[in-house]
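Aldo/keto reductase structure dump, as promised
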Amino acid sequence: MTSTPAIPTTTLGDDLEVSVIGYGAMVLSPTVYGEVDDDASLATLHHAVDAGVTFLDTADVYGAGHNERLISRLLADRRDDVQLATKFGIAGNPADRAAGTPPTRGDAAYVRAAADASLERLGTDVIDLYYMHRRDARVPIEETVGAMAELVTAGKVRHLGLSEVTATELRAAHAVHPIAAVQSEWSVWSRDVEGSVVPTAAELGVGFVPYSPLGRGFLTGTLASGSDLGERDFRRLLPRFGEANLEANLAVVDGIRAIGTELGATPAQVALAWLYAKGRALGLPVVPIPGSRRAARVEENAGALRLTLTPDQVSGLDSLADAVVGHRSEDPNWVSEGRERTV
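structure tokens r here:
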């Protein structure tokens, strides 16, 4: 079955062409946001690809391999219809922080083993974009990326990516092998990457793939209190979603909703349109990967491509970050912001 894309494409770094909006499949694993039905998830994936959202993002750690196996069911019929991204490097469940930050691994042997395991779960012979999910500070990034580059030479991977790296780490990696994309959290309420990482990506010709572009669902306006989160929802662990902080952060959603009212758009569409506006201003290809379990949300998110924000609207959205209460991660060093501050 071949889809008829209704969504344009763009080119990230290293000449990787993808749909201009992607799909973050992490939401389809029960260990992250609670229980989910696999058949319903597969239907949503097919709907996304039918609509032209062909850039699919997963990782070996999502559901301890469940996510990749789920996507393999789509790939069995539609491998040529999609651009497939997956990741390695987190050796523990990121949704289970009771014992602290999960360990990371970036040694060459682990990179090779992780890639082979992902290929087997996905049921494919090549990964279009292979990310280092988190940096293993015990291993020189040159070793990790060198091993990833060997996968390209072997034909197992087409392009390389990095997630939550600092500007310095990005430069070091790019010197070893061209980097197609950096994937880090970036949204109206998470703007720390604009300090160094985003400008460096633009300078080097590396594309940017914002994950959680809708603030893990918060910027859609569908969460009013902590009681809206399920017992197994890992957002309960994040400072911004603590009851007191979440209530204060509703002011950010109010600001997004007000601009949506001006444009006849939803808060989600406004938040995504802001990211595209920031990318255009920097000359940087930006491909957000919102995730949703519902097909209707996939269509809603794609509607952001029809929005054009005025400079005043962009400026107004920029200012909302000043009202945010709480860090985006329970461990600042788990994301690039913490390591950037130590440089």
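The chain has one domain: 9-342.
lmk if u need the other ones
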